């Protein structure tokens, strides 16, 4: 008797994914995405096998004699999983803490909490909650800060690995201007980071990010060794902060009087380039923007934390004109939500305050393919091209009575998406899949 061929898995719903940046010159918004009102997403061995019109695909598979195991989500919307390009898992338990701007926030909330992560049991507990919360909000890939403790990196990578999430993380490097129990040394941070790269980078869906917290908490020697690591290991990432707050910018000028700008400090030590992601990027000048564009260094747009900490307004238009990659980011816990929908809500408002606009198509591109491009992962995730990893979410557009009522007055896809990003949140995520397996489904 011949062995039975296992059925391919397929998911039926409306389907939306992006194939180009809507903001690119000569690209009409309608040609930046594919939308199937009655679509079918076919998955084989954790990767996209096909995506298109349901009736056409079902007929072609039937004609070929290929069985499909179809999960019917009719009435809902399937999209690629959201990608969060900057967040801090150790700050999960201080999210929504009152009354501080950036530097006060670090001293009042961040540093006392991060000191506790020498405890592996605590780190594991927070890491598992953090990953579950990402999935509950439809985020399937994230770039994450740990703490200075090696075990904090082990904890977050183990948590992501058991859920088959794609995750980038690294040990914080911090050898000055921080509490003594949160300082390493330039040499120890280099050696520990090197060990963690060798242990974790490239394991399954995990990647390592060299992680100096920000220039004020690193000596010049530590930044030099961070640059050495970045050059030494192919394919590793670098993540840090730049130009988030005016007091921070002034502090950097005092600490590095030789530098032309805050960004120039990092550039001096070889910390710009592809797979380098800089959070915030609010107070940068034209020369900084040009340098980021020339090196293809990416920005992480963190709207909820920029508003919550009173930091300032991001300039999306300049980044787009210059061709700088931009990813969306929650920046938990200075950021106030794990939800990418809420993050897009605040991004729209930030840009409105800055005399700019964010169309819903641009917003959802930024949260999916745009973020994948900024992380140089668009060959693996970000849309439903055949062969890519099957990370996707099922969105309920009518998850609340208000949204159901609003959607009944939405005349087209653009209006639906805009209402989703302004009114939506975790309740809209009906299911989250990584590598074609359901990791969380709303009951």
Would you give an account of this structure?
- With 443 residues, the chain is α/β, with parallel strands linked by helices.
- It is 38% helix and 23% strand.
- It is built from 15 helices and 16 strands.
- Strands 5, 6, 7, 8, 9, 10, 11, 12 and 13 form a nine-stranded parallel beta sheet that branches.
- Helix 5 links the parallel strand 8 and strand 9.
- Helix 5 packs parallel to helix 6 and helix 13 packs across helix 15.
- The longest helix is centred in the first third of the chain and has 17 residues.
- The protein is globular, with a radius of gyration of 22 Å.
Search tags:
9-stranded parallel β-sheet, 15 helices, 443 residues
User: Which range does the strand content fall in?
Assistant: 15-25%
Q: Which regions contain 5 or more consecutive residues with pLDDT less than 50?
A: none
Overall mean pLDDT stands at 96
Q: Largest sheet, if any?
A: 9 strands, parallel
How many angstroms does the end-to-end distance come to?
Answer: 40 Å
Helix and strand content put the structural class at alpha/beta
Based on CA atoms alone, the radius of gyration comes out at 22 Å
Quantity of strands, as a count: 16
Give the overall shape, derived from the CA principal axes. globular
Specify the number of helices.
Answer: 15
* Helicity, as a percent range: 25-40%
Task: Give the secondary structure arrangement, pairings included.
Layout: E1 8-18, E2 33-44, E3 47-53, H1 54-63, E4 68-80, E5 82-88, H2 102-115, H3 120-136, E6 139-145, H4 150-162, E7 166-170, E8 172-173, H5 186-200, E9 206-212, H6 220-232, E10 237-242, H7 246-255, H8 262-268, E11 276-280, H9 286-295, E12 298-301, H10 303-308, H11 316-322, E13 326-328, H12 340-353, H13 360-374, E14 392-395, H14 401-407, H15 413-423, E15 429-434, E16 437-441
Helix pairs in contact: 3-4, 4-5, 5-6, 12-15, 13-15
């Amino acid at each position: 008797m011949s062995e039975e061929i296992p059925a391919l898995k397929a998911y039926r719903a409306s389907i939306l994914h992006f194939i180009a940046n809507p903001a690119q010159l000569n690209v009409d918004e309608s040609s930046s995405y594919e939308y199937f009102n009655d679509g079918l997403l076919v998955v084989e061995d954790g990767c996209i096998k096909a995506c298109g019109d349901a009736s056409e695909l079902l007929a072609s598979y039937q004609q070929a004699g290929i069985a499909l195991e179809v999960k019917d989500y009719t009435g809902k919307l399937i999209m690629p999983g959201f990608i969060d390009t900057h967040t801090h898992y150790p700050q999960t338990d201080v999210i929504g803490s009152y009354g501080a701007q950036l530097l006060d926030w670090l001293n009042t909330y961040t540093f006392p909490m991060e000191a506790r992560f020498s405890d592996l049991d605590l780190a594991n507990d927070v890491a598992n909650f953090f990953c579950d919360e990402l999935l509950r909000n439809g985020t399937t890939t994230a770039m994450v800060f740990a703490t200075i403790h090696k075990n904090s990196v082990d904890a977050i990578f183990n948590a992501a690995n058991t859920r088959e999430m794609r995750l980038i993380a690294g040990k914080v490097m911090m050898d000055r201007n921080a509490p003594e129990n949160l300082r390493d040394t330039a040499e120890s941070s280099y050696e520990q980071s090197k060990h963690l790269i060798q242990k974790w980078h490239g394991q399954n869906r995990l990647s390592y990010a060299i992680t100096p917290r920000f220039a004020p908490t690193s000596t010049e020697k530590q930044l030099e060794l961070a640059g050495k690591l970045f050059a030494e290991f192919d394919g590793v990432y670098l993540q840090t902060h730049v130009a988030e707050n005016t007091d921070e910018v002034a502090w950097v000028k005092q600490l590095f009087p030789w530098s032309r700008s805050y960004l120039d400090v990092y550039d001096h030590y070889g910390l710009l380039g592809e797979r380098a992601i800089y959070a915030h990027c609010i107070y940068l000048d034209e020369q900084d923007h040009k340098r980021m564009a020339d090196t293809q260094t990416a920005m992480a747009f963190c709207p909820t934390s920029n508003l919550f900490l009173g930091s300032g307004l991001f300039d999306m238009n300049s980044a787009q004109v210059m061709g700088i990659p931009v990813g969306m980011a929650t920046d938990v816990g200075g950021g106030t939500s794990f939800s990418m929908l809420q993050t897009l809500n605040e991004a729209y408002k930030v840009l409105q305050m800055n005399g700019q606009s964010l169309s819903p198509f641009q917003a959802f591109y930024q949260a999916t393919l745009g973020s994948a491009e900024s992380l140089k992962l668009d060959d693996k995730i970000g849309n439903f091209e055949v062969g890519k990893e099957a990370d996707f979410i099922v969105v309920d557009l009518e998850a609340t009575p208000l949204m159901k009522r609003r959607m009944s007055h939405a005349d087209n896809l653009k209006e639906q998406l805009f209402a989703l990003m302004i009114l939506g949140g975790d309740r809209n995520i009906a299911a989250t899949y990584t590598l074609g397996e359901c990791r969380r489904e709303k009951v």
